[in-house]
Amino acid sequence: MTVPESPQAALATANRILAREGVLDAFGHVSVRHPTDPTRFYLARSLAPELVTEADILEFDLASQPVGPCDVALYSERVIHGGIYQVRPDVNAICHHHAPAVLPFCLADLTLRVVTQLGATIGKQVPLWDQRTEFGATNHLVTRADEAASLARCLGTNGIVLMKRHGATVVGSSLRELAFRSIYSCRDAELQLRARSYGPIDSFTDDEIDLAGKFPEATLSRAWNYWCARLPSGA
Ligand code: MN
User: Which domains, ranges and CATH numbers included, belong to the chain?
Assistant: First the structure.
């Protein structure tokens, strides 16, 4: 390809990949920071991710408000994205999801660990945020700036934050790293739950996560290209 892909086109592809691979369903969303203006990010209008095309992508400021006139429905939880971009300059892509693979770790007293080499993308720590702790009874949607700021604080410098009784929010330095972390964290979650039914499970040590968890661009692109090939359009 001689013409570089636009961030909107790449984001539309990421939406469809993450839906196709079981991270997103009718709900959940993925965003990417503007490539030249760090105070802006791209996110689709309110739409099931598998249906997102480039034409559905809108630009937002870090207050998660659309830039310019907007007469379409927006994701109610879009503050998650602006809230994290505000405090994590290293983060350029974010996915919020409710994947069945990770929900058991948000419901039961289970710790999400690294159990395979690709799963090392999870990182050494996976914090668990409980909206109830700070905000009492809510509808378990993150729709306010103070709720998003609390979630971002809990995420800290990690790659994933689990959300009690809700789902997860994953961050990456690029859309490709984000897709890799989102998908392989779900794979590792599925594997460790299945393995637990056969007995105690073993997991990577912190040293092993340090050694295994550095994935070069070539690895991220190899996975991205595979996931693109699995899209119905082959795009
Ligand atoms: Mn949600």
Answer: 7-228 (3.40.225.10)
User: Residue 131 burial (CB < 10 Å; 0-12/13-18/19+)?
Assistant: buried
3-state secondary structure of 31: strand
Indicate the average pLDDT of the chain. 96
1 pLDDT tier (thresholds 50, 70, 90): low
| Helical segments of the chain, H only | 7-20, 79-87, 103-107, 131-135, 145-155, 175-196, 206-212, 217-229
In this prediction, residue 202 has a pLDDT band, given cuts at 50, 70 and 90, of very high
Task: Please check whether residue 13 is in contact with residue 235, taking contact to mean a CB–CB distance below 8 angstroms.
Answer: yes
How many alpha carbons fall within 13 Å on the CB side of residue 173? 8
Would you call 58 helix, strand, or coil by DSSP?
strand
Catalytic-role residue among 21, 50, 77, 208: 77
Q: What is the pLDDT of residues 137-147, one digit of tens each?
A: 999 999 999 99
Is-catalytic flag, 77? yes
pLDDT at 3: 72
CA of 68 to the centre of ligand 1 (A): 25
Spatial separation of the C-alpha atoms in residues 212 and 13, rounded to whole Å: 27
